[in-house]
Amino acid sequence: MNRLWLLFCQAITILLAAWFVLTTLKPGWTSGSKVSSLVDQVTLREAPESSSQSPNPGSFADAAKASSPAVVNIFTSKVANKSKSQKKGAPNQNEPWFRFFFGDQAPNEEPSSSLGSGVIVSPQGIILTNHHVIEGADEIEVAFADGRKRNAKLIGSDPETDIAVLKIDATDLPAPITLGKMESVQVGDVVLAIGNPFGVGQTVTSGIVSALGRNQLGINTFENFIQTDAAINPGNSGGALVDTKGNLIGINTAIYSRSGGNMGIGFAIPINTAKQVMESILTNGSVTRGWIGVEPQNLSKELAESLNVPANTSGVLISGVLDGGPADKAGIKPGDVLTQVNGQKVGDVVNLLNRIAQTNPGDEAKVNLIRKGKEITLKVQVGKRPKSKAKS
């Protein structure tokens, strides 16, 4: 028994010595049990299954989920015009400028492609986008959010508002977006911008409505922009600006930038303008606007004094009249100050342009003028605005 006990003690001593050597020289060999024991001791709190199904407080996930499938990527291919690109030149890097945010094009005569976005607005495959996205395109391809692609055809476009209408002939389209009401949009409202910036894939950014009715920016002929600080970058042109319910309130168009990237000042065409242009294109193939053939100029205080116009007069100076045009035939002359159209006051050139454009060609418009200090009223038969750039 003594011998057995001695052997047992020697074996235990050898094992303890071996264990001590291992833990000293190779601690990693014996740390597994220690780590697993720590893991067993850690208690984690996880959210219940039900809460993962609903959005977090303050989340706009429902709005993004409702509207994102209707936003598509638009790929166009065309042969770049070398002479045209050289004429444009590069903007002054020290000055901010307005930039349409769609993919860059190679400045040569090789086939090139550009990237933009669009919005499906009807089950029949009608898509709203920007005119500058598809301008001069030989081919137009649309990619859905799920990766599917379809060819699209151009129904018509309106360069003066920068709206274009496309159509896809397919039956497996995503649900169209719901159109919002501009009457309910206010400065300070939260909005989401959806598009494909830099071609990285569909992206949703948020911001607020910074201003409404922005005009005289020199971007389009007819301007009435929604200004937003939602992050908008190249590739977003033609994409959706939606409210927190996922309703479409604008078509993203341009940014104010020094570098070409987002600086928190973006502009979108209001949905009521886009819808009006779309309906006119679908009905007539183009947009028809009124025109009287004058060259207007905003009336400054100095001009008003030199023309003996009463102080605080609201109107525009007619600095030129097209020979044989509607205004010339009606008796409007250079130097007249136009104050009203059909009983509505005219505050500036943009206001006059919109008033006349909204009058149907062939209709008669009553205009109030101040000529040499006297008020006169004339009737002008409104003509059709030429497709090329023309006087208002």
Describe what this molecule looks like in 3D:
With 392 residues, the protein is of the alpha+beta class. The protein folds into two domains: 62-82 and 93-284, Beta Barrel (Thrombin, subunit H), CATH 2.40.10; 290-384, Pdz3 Domain, CATH 2.30.42. 22% of the residues lie in helices and 32% in strands. The chain has helices at residues 2-25, 32-41, 61-67, 82-88, 131-134, 271-284, 301-306, 326-330, 349-357, and strands spanning 71-79, 97-100, 111-120, 126-129, 139-143, 149-151, 153-158, 163-167, 190-195, 203-214, 225-228, 240-242, 248-257, 266-270, 290-291, 294-298, 316-321, 337-341, 344-345, 364-371, 374-381, 383-384. It has a seven-stranded antiparallel sheet with strand order 6-5-1-3-4-8-7. It is elongated and about 135 Å long. The model is unreliable at 82-112 (pLDDT under 50).
